[in-house]
Design goal:
By secondary structure, the protein is α/β, with parallel strands linked by helices. The chain has 3 domains: 165 residues, Nucleotidyltransferase, domain 5, CATH 3.30.420.10; 98 residues, no CATH class; 75 residues, 3-Layer(aba) Sandwich (Rossmann fold), CATH 3.40.50.10190. Helix content is 41%, strand content 15%. It contains 15 helices and 13 strands. A 5-stranded mixed β-sheet has the order 3-2-1-4-6, with helices on both faces. It has a 4-stranded parallel β-sheet with strand order 11-8-12-13, sandwiched between helices. Strands 5-7 form a two-stranded antiparallel ribbon. A hairpin with an 8-residue loop joins strand 1 and strand 2. It is flat. The N and C termini lie far apart (60 Å).
């Protein structure tokens, strides 16, 4: 049996909270050497919670796969393996909650808790055993540190262990995980974010391998000559003929359009992106949907109502809600606690927030701005 070392970053600690980032480090059951890793942000389909703690913003997860899309990839690594975590009860509880919502059957078995074995928080235990931990509260960094700690403590793990079971009912259609490190700390590239929203339109192994390579080729929105040559060679090696490739390109583009339209809006950036990808794939330009983003109108007078949502962090410092509301009042705005059709302005910790308030504001056509923009406009 292998060991699957897991770590989850979440929107909070309650059962109603959701995972925003998950990592798995798989260790060989005999040598304890790393044989596989999984690292991805997860769209919690709600507010991301304490960004000041885990560093995950709404913009980062807006392009990330949901737990339903990640579940098959987790199953490949957790099923039949013994779970290991630093505070195992928490991680397996959060996994169980999210996976249940995703429609998967998860039984965590009996695993190993390095928190119990070490009696220390992960940072302190890492220092005790000389384990590098440069980016705490990042799922992969914590999982790697926990895996190394487990190697130090494995001889002390004398409890009975049983492997986990994770059964999903869908094939993994999202091969490209969405990592923080993929494009720097913020994953701010509009192209990467839009590509990241889409599910690949097939479960056939050869087609998935080709489309995974196509993802990387399209990272800059252009298929260069060398990239095209590589894709042609790969397609030939996989036995994909011209008709199959044409169908794959069309299905891929349709999936990309669906991803851009997921929030009900095709922005100017997304519209330009779709034109570039259509050209790269020789898709007719009339297949690109019209831009639907409306010009933003930010209230500038006094007496307007404003509602805040999310945990506001600017310059690495969290700003309490009461402080933001006081600043709004000083600027002549009227803070309110809920979103109604009469609301004038919604201020989100991140403009890509999928919190209930931000989602409702957009559905009413109410302008949503970031905390930074609010501070610039109303407190400067």
């Amino acid at each position: 049996m292998n060991f699957a070392v897991v770590d989850c970053e979440t929107t909070g600690l309650k059962n109603a909270d959701r995972i925003v980032e998950v990592a798995v480090v798989v260790l060989d059951g005999d040598s304890l050497e790393v044989i596989d890793e999984l690292d991805t942000l997860v769209n919690p389909q709600r507010d991301v919670g304490p960004t000041g703690l885990h560093g995950v913003t709404a913009s980062m997860v807006s392009a990330a796969p949901t737990m339903a899309e990640v579940a098959p990839l987790l199953a490949q690594r957790l099923h039949g393996a013994v779970l290991v975590a630093h505070n195992l009860n928490f991680d397996r509880r959060m996994l169980a909650n999210d996976l249940a919502v995703a429609g998967a059957e998860f039984h965590p078995g009996e695993g190993v808790c390095t928190l119990q074995l070490s009696g220390q928080r992960l940072g302190a235990a890492a220092e005790t055993y000389g384990i590098p931990l440069e980016r705490a509260h990042r799922a992969l960094a914590d999982a790697r540190a926990t895996a190394t700690l487990f190697r130090h403590l494995v001889d002390e793990a004398d409890g009975e262990v049983h492997p986990a079971s994770l059964i999903t009912y869908s094939a993994p259609t999202v091969l490209r995980t969405h990592r923080r490190d993929a494009h720097g700390e913020t994953l701010s590239s509009p192209l990467t974010r839009t590509l990241g929203k889409m599910s690949l339109p097939t479960s056939e192994r050869r087609a998935l391998e080709y489309l995974d390579a196509l993802d990387w080729a399209l990272d800059d929105g252009v298929v260069e000559h060398a990239e095209a040559a590589y894709l042609d060679e790969l397609a030939g090696g996989l036995g994909l003929d011209g008709d199959t490739l044409a169908w794959l390109h069309q299905a891929y583009f349709r999936a990309l359009v669906a991803a851009a339209q997921r929030d009900g809006i095709v922005t100017a950036v997304e519209h330009q992106l779709l034109h570039r990808i259509a050209a790269a794939l020789t898709i007719p330009q009339h297949a690109v949907p019209d831009m639907t983003e409306l010009p933003r109108e930010v209230p500038t007078g006094t007496g307007w109502t404003v509602c805040f949502t999310g945990t506001a962090v600017t310059g690495g410092t969290e700003i309490p809600r009461r402080q933001l509301e006081a600043l709004a009042a000083n600027a002549g705005l009227q803070p309110v606690g809920s979103v109604t059709k009469k609301l004038d302005l919604c201020v989100a910790a991140d403009v890509a927030s999928d919190s209930g308030k931000a989602r409702k504001a957009r559905s009413y056509g109410i302008t949503v701005i970031s905390v930074d923009e609010f501070l610039t406009r109303f407190t400067s």
